[in-house]
Structure formats: structure tokens, C-alpha cells
Amino acid sequence: MAAAAADLDLSPPEIPESTFLENLLRYGLFFGAIFQLICILAIIFPFPKSSDTDSNQSEQKNSEMVRKQKVVPPQISKKLKKETKKKR
């Protein structure tokens, strides 16, 4: 039995040291996996928008609405005037 154990080589196999490109690939894959997990978590748990961007967007929408409201009434009145002239 001792002779059988002596015949088997149980030492760890010789593994060559990894090269720079292998290390770069390994760490790049780790960072890519972490980035994908962050993206998936961002989709599952969306973060609320900050109040600064909301207030800026609401101000822009309000100013656009005011501009549209100012432009719309003259067009309606022109159409009404044209229709009244056609009726005469």
C-alpha cells in the first residue's frame, strides 16, 4: 500500500504564471459583469429624479405652454374673422 502511494504523484500541477493579456481579460470580464449587475439593478430599482432637474423641466414646460397659449388665440381669431367675412 505504501508503494502505491509512492507511485502516485499528488503534488499540485505546475501552472504557468498568467500573462498580462490574460490578467487584463480576467479583470475586464469582472468589471463588465459588475457593470451589467449595476445596470440590471438600476432597471429593477429606479432611482427618483433629483428635484433640480424636475424644477428645470417644469419651468421649461411652463414657458413653452405660455408661448403656445399666446400664439394660439390670434390664430383662432384670424380663422373666425375669415369665416365671418365668408358668411357675408
TrEMBL record:
GO terms for cellular component: membrane. Residues 78-88 have a biased composition (Basic residues). It holds the Pfam family UPF0239. It comes from Microcaecilia unicolor. The chain crosses the membrane at residues 27-47. It is found in: Membrane. Belongs to the UPF0239 family. This is Protein MANBAL. The gene is MANBAL. Residues 50-88 are annotated as: Disordered. Keywords: Membrane, Transmembrane, Transmembrane helix. It comes from the Eukaryota. It is a single-pass membrane protein. Its main location: membrane.
